């Protein structure tokens, strides 16, 4: 609940006067709103009681006093009991689960002036390299190496503007985003944000505290029922508050664990005294002004701990010196508060925000009365620094903050009353009854009421004696029926019940189609339009909580500058079971960081469309099965889009390579065919040549044979002639020898 700044000490004072007593005075100016002496106390308590009642209603707790005008009308109990039938809880849980299922699509960027200049210089170098690309290639061809230019080896994108707008990241930005992923997974921030969104829907407020714990930036969900803040803010967000206070009820051990470094021996003795409380009489020493100790005989004592932060004012003095190189930009050096001005010194003063804190325990112990450590300031503007508390109050600027439970409270009460009347009607319901005149009881034959009921149950007969003395036969027909079965009122109550369910959907903006209640006669297009319209009606709740998450994540990123200024080494498990190593360098402290969060609802709807497109791409063959699975497992739209784009590019490259290979194979095949054709022609030429040679050889052979034959005939004829001549000669010689022999004989 917001309260004003009445009674606060002065803030524009030197640091030497900001002592522990000054911190205690500031803290008491806040804690007095918890007592009964201030006029604004009733507003604070009424708002807190309303939040407590909202949570009780959300959790299904029924306060009988709220329904006494229905249940105690005649001073006697009715045969029914008032119970809670959750109508609000289902709708709030639906929105909570929708928010939890939406990915935290974030992008971290350095937003200080130096980072902007670095990015602009990088873009100019890319443009210069693109313009000189042809000249650089000619230079390389002539001299064998590229010219000595900045970023000469960096690949030049096709669209430099689009690349710088969406894709380019400095190394420090990637490291910072990895650090944010580490914190989200290490400290389960999605669950913390889920609890905060539940607070937002139930109470209309959600608060977080961002501070340093164990050397890391840390986020803690703050119960809105325990927070007070400055009521003078003119915004729905807690960023503009001058002070914020939080009260908690802790056990003695919890106090020791959290504040052990700050507690003295006297403080420990006070806590030990509180531990020994065993009855209500011993509380008077502590609960004098307000209830500092909450004692329960079963749970023991719990201590009220109030922690407050407020914005004070700090004077910073600068010693101004002349700059010989630039007379319009003189040198400025921060000097201490007690610096004594010399004769020629020029001093300037600047007043900046300075956060202080103090904690009060059990009304008697004061710890951490100090300037808050780890104050994050901008590199470009060191004048402002935020409180460690961040949050939102729904519709606070209208002066009447209402939660979703506030809007549905009366509908829920009417819903419970309708169910109460249905149960009451069922309790009164029964079968048909007979009106039996006891004067007709046949006592003269020894029958009592139990015997009559027995014969009625077993035989279906009611025996009477109409001739009994004193009976009036003319008035014999005394039997009637009374109908105690369910009447039409139950149907009317059920219709009222359905009407209240419809009214709750109209007030909350959550339609039955969004809850999955789709009738069989409804068209798909009508259902989709109903779901879209319902999403638009509830978008305001998601939008404001998304803004709070953005502020919290920015606080975490900028707290890294303080916590990890000397570097950080860590590792964490990714959502798909992968492993990532975090290495943060000290230069993280040299920048300011901003976080961009996408529209989770729109991104989730587009992510589903991307998943459908991935299935279509898988069927068409433009995406691989593995990439389709990665798209389905992606946590954010950008991740799914990147995976889909890379997968399609990979498949495209594979197809292009396949086409190139096919063309190469076709060219090789054509070359092979040409070679085969050439070889075939050569083979045919060889065969023809062979045939010609063979023909020539045959012709030559025939000629030679003919010549040989001719020579043979001539030789044969000559031989015959010679032989004939020889024979004739032999014959002549024989005749001569015969003649000589005859002559000799004679």
Could you characterize what this model shows?
The chain contains 19 helices and 17 strands. The chain has 746 residues and is an alpha+beta fold. Among the domains are: 1-39 and 242-386, no CATH class; 430-485, no CATH class. Strands 1, 5, 6, 7, 8, 9, 10 and 11 form an eight-stranded mixed β-sheet that branches. It has a three-stranded antiparallel β-sheet with strand order 4-3-12. β7 and β8 (300-321) form a beta hairpin. α17 runs parallel beside α19 and α18 (625-633) packs antiparallel against α19. The longest helix has 109 residues, at 637-745. The model is unreliable at 36-40 (pLDDT under 50).
Report, as a whole number of angstroms, the end-to-end distance. Answer: 190 Å
β-strand percent reads: 15-25%
Instruction: Give the helix/strand class.
Output: alpha+beta
Tell me, rounded to a whole number, the average pLDDT: 79
Uncertain runs are 36-40
Number of strands: 17
Shape verdict: flat
Helix fraction? Answer: 40-55%
Over all CA atoms, what is the radius of gyration? 52 Å
Task: List the total number of helices.
Answer: 19
Please summarize the sheet with the most strands. 8 strands, mixed
